[in-house]
Design goal:
200 residues, alpha+beta, five-stranded mixed sheet, two-stranded antiparallel sheet, 11 strands
């Protein structure tokens, strides 16, 4: 009888640990208010997508999304990033609860019509939005909300520097995962983490 109780206790403990592992962490530098730990949320934003539609935080209400920062004339990591994110899109393209938000950091060259042409070439639906806007606003949200890099540098290929990460954002605007956008292994991890986040 005691042996059965020990086995039962082990099973409950093990399953409890499994349940905890199924929940993705919250990322960013939290603040503490009393007994509450408060993680940073994505700040309010407003951009235009490839269909000239205004895209804000409200666009993603009740949805999760993957964000990244690219530019279409990028001669280095952007083509790899777009290829990897397309793999994620292909898995979840029919799920309206999973969206994608690619910000161009080169709004002068990446016009709305250019973004539209590129989106059409990928054959994606409006779950994947390519957005443009004021350059300072895009650089600002990159560094202040997504904690990634985006700035001009004439010495770099393409004249711009940006982080190569994919950022997984939940329904409440919290970042729940960061992934190397050039690494196929990380792409598989992102696909799996989206599945976990949809279950929350």
């Amino acid at each position: 009888m005691r042996k059965i109780a020990i086995i039962a206790l082990f099973t409950v403990t093990f399953l409890g640990c499994q349940d905890r592992q199924e929940r993705l962490p919250f990322l960013g530098n939290p603040s503490v208010a009393g007994k509450d730990t408060i993680y940073p949320k994505i700040k309010a934003f407003s951009f235009l997508d490839q269909d000239s539609t205004i895209v804000t935080n409200e666009t993603f209400r009740g949805k999760i999304y993957v964000a990244d920062f690219i530019f279409l004339s990028c001669p280095t990591i952007c083509p790899k990033m777009n290829k990897e994110l397309k793999k994620v899109y292909d898995v979840y393209h029919s799920n309206a609860q999973v969206n994608y938000l690619s910000h161009t950091i080169d709004p002068e060259r990446d016009s709305i019509s250019t973004l539209k042409k590129y989106a059409n070439s990928l054959r994606v639906n409006n779950n994947w939005r390519f957005v443009t806007g004021n350059k300072d606003s895009i650089f600002g949200i990159a560094t202040q909300s997504y904690f990634t890099t985006a700035y001009p540098d004439a010495k770099e290929p393409g004249g711009l520097v940006h982080g190569g990460g994919f950022l997984l954002v939940d329904k409440n605007r919290y970042i729940r995962g960061v992934y190397d956008g050039t690494n196929p292994i990380e792409t598989k991890r992102l696909i799996n983490d989206i599945k976990l986040l949809l279950k929350e």
